[in-house]
Structures are given as structure tokens and as C-alpha cells.
Design goal:
Number of helices: 7
Radius of gyration: 29 Å
Shape: rod-shaped
Largest sheet: none
């Protein structure tokens, strides 16, 4: 109703000039269309990367548990508790995780800062973003590794040492 009224007044004042209008929200949508596409693709690739990482960590945990069956058996015969055996495996994967963090955090910060510098109104990158991301990844890693480590810690040491 308002647009029709404005168009009528426009034609009264400027009869030779056509009336063309657009909404500011439509203009912003057109301006950030590429960023919306990139965001959608980045989410898809991030989910795929997390899935591949989980599968890789699970495979590495299975391989490590298989390689250390005799060591776990000897530790259990000598009186190690299940928590100590699980802690041994967790420490291995925690070291790998920390090395990956040292490599990934500067790269991610630099890439995000470079991407954000192209915007007029810029959001800052806080440490809490990296902290929450790393905490989530650490939790996902520990959950992935926990099955294999628990299984290796619960095995009967007689079965693993029988061939010695």
C-alpha cells in the first residue's frame, strides 16, 4: 500500500522517469551471496573432515592397541590397574593432539584473520573460539579412542602373553 502511494506521487512529480525501487535487505543479500555459498561449502567440508578424522583416530587406536597387547599384558601381570593402562593410551593420543594444536592454531588464526580483513565491519577472533573448538575435538578424540583403549585394558593378560 505504501509503495503504491509512493509510486503514484513519483509519477505525479517525475512523469518522464520510471519508478524503480528495492529493499535494503535484498541488497545485503546480493552483497553477501558468495559468503553464504562459501559458508555452506565450508560446513560440508568441515563435517567431512571431522568424519575422516574420527575414522583415522579410531584406526590408529586399533593399531596401537594391537601393537601394545604384550606390553599391556606385562603391565597387568605386574599389577597395573585398568586406569593406568587407559592413561597410557590416552597420553599417547594427547601428545599427538597437542602437536596438532601447535601446528593448526596459528594457521587457522592467520587464515581467519585474512578472510575477516576483507569486511568493512569486522568481528574479532577471540581465544574462546579456539578453546571451545579444541575442547570439542579433544572430547571427540577421547570418545573415539576410549572403546579400543578400554578393550585393550580389559583383556586377559594370559591371552596376550600365551605365545611368549
Amino acid at each position: 500500500e505504501k509503495i503504491a502511494f509512493i509510486e503514484k506521487k513519483w509519477k505525479e512529480i517525475f512523469p518522464a522517469v520510471g519508478f524503480d525501487y528495492w529493499f535494503l535487505s535484498d541488497e545485503f543479500t546480493r552483497m553477501y551471496e558468495m559468503e553464504a555459498r562459501v559458508s555452506s561449502m565450508a560446513k560440508s567440508f568441515a563435517i567431512l573432515a571431522i568424519l575422516i578424522t574420527v575414522l583415522g583416530v579410531f584406526g590408529l587406536a586399533s593399531y596401537t592397541a594391537g601393537q601394545k597387547t604384550k606390553e599391556v599384558g606385562i603391565r597387568k601381570v605386574l599389577g597395573a590397574a585398568i586406569a593406568q593402562v587407559v592413561g597410557m593410551f590416552v597420553w599417547i593420543f594427547l601428545k599427538i593432539f597437542l602437536i596438532a594444536c601447535v601446528i593448526a592454531i596459528p594457521i587457522a588464526y592467520f587464515m581467519a584473520d585474512t578472510w575477516l580483513s576483507g569486511f568493512a565491519y569486522r568481528a574479532s577472533i577471540g581465544a574462546e573460539i579456539f578453546g571451545l573448538s579444541l575442547a570439542g575435538l579433544l572430547l571427540l578424540t577421547l570418545i573415539t579412542v576410549s572403546y579400543e583403549t578400554w578393550k585393550a585394558a580389559r583383556t586377559n593378560p594370559v591371552n596376550s602373553l600365551r605365545s611368549e
